[in-house]
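Section 5.1 Outputs to date
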Amino acid sequence: MHNRTLRQKVTDNSGALASVGFGVSRYLQPGLITLAALICAGSPSAGAQETSSATVDFQRDVRPILADNCFQCHGPDPGTRKADLRLDTEEGAFAARPKGSVIVPGVIQASLLYQRITHENQRRKMPPVVSNKTLSDVQIDVMRRWIEEGASWDQHWSFKPIDRPEVPAVANEAWVRNSLDRFVLARLESAGLTPNPEADKRTLARRLALDLTGLPLAWETLERFLNDQSEEAYEKLIDRLLESEHWGEHRARYWLDAA
């Protein structure tokens, strides 16, 4: 695909290729934004994030631990809930209880949750032995750091209001065609990198066809694209490929592999 689309490669001063995994194209329009979302939704997860030095994120680092190890007995199902304790909601996790609070932001010694997951007595340790679940040292450390950092219970991004970011200034104004380009270029410039030269139309068309359909572009479609000198030629080619049944077949392959 275009080297400023979903994934952009840039060359550093030593000539080695560095891959910048955020890219959005200077050609990116609403239709392609939807395409990017679909591609990301169909891609396999990259796995657990490293949290050894970064601030612990509740949704990324903590909630998966609670969901895998605690929700069965302290989750949304009242039929399996134990001790009338819910750890799947902020209200339940921070509610005052007869023996103290389950989570006390900033104070692990006063947090019953941390006391129970590190308890030496196996009869009192959580998760219980009968659950056949156990927390690794790394997971326990994540919980400790999360509580020490204030136990922020952030909402999932999909429930947060959308804020309009400030469009960054860039040095290479000539490269910019729309506001989205400014975000891409600003990130590159902050890393001391510059974009690759723009690929020719034939190369762009081939990349796009293989990305979206997994097939080479039909000659008639390629010829129409090469002869189209309008500013919207790239977007029109995207639309034609997305309207093709081959797009659906290509994307369905990943879902069928997962199934």
